[in-house]
Design brief:
Elements lengths: L5 H28 L16 H8 L30
């Protein structure tokens, strides 16, 4: 009786585990896609997470206190420098 090497036994075990994992993933995908099992990654209400609650409670402390920072909004330094010949 020939003796099998330890590496080939580990390879067979890894192959069997991979096949079992793929079959299990396929069954879970089928059950979730058919609606038999509820998707655990999909929230039932979007505002139930902690991040959503914090976002709703936060406020902008400097709202309407920032001055206008665009220096060209009132004064145009290029006004009168170029005349469009097609106007």
């Amino acid at each position: 009786m020939p003796r099998r090497s330890l590496t080939s036994q580990k390879g067979n075990i890894a192959l069997i585990l991979l096949i079992i994992l793929l079959v299990l993933a396929g069954v879970v995908f089928f059950l979730i896609s058919k609606g038999i099992v509820k998707n655990p990654l999909q929230n039932s209400s979007p505002n139930s997470s902690l991040g959503a609650q914090i976002f709703e409670k936060t406020q902008n402390p400097i709202q309407d206190k920032i001055p206008e920072t665009n220096p060209f909004a009132k004064v145009n330094p290029f006004k009168g420098v170029y005349k469009n010949p097609f106007e």
